[in-house]
Protein: PsiF repeat-containing protein
Organism: Pseudoteredinibacter isoporae
Amino acid sequence: MKSIKLSLIPMLAIAALATSPAYAADEAETAKKSNKKICKKYRPTGTRIAKKTCMTQRGWDELKRRAQDAARTSQRLSGHQNREEGPRGGF
């Protein structure tokens, strides 16, 4: 019985923390940051002239996720040919 009470204490503390105003303020702060516009400069291939793109943090995160998914899909569809070409790995 004593061990059950001891295991409930941390769970109750976490539940109380999750409903506290400070936690809600952290969520509001995170939401505010995700809506903030972030601009980044990059140089497209073949030019020395930099371009600037602005998106929210959520937009940058989505762009990164899509690029990672495309890389995974490309690797999966390539059939990992390097393994089949011999001990040198295809180089």
Q: What stands out?
A: Strands lie at 37-42, 51-56. The chain has three helices and two strands.
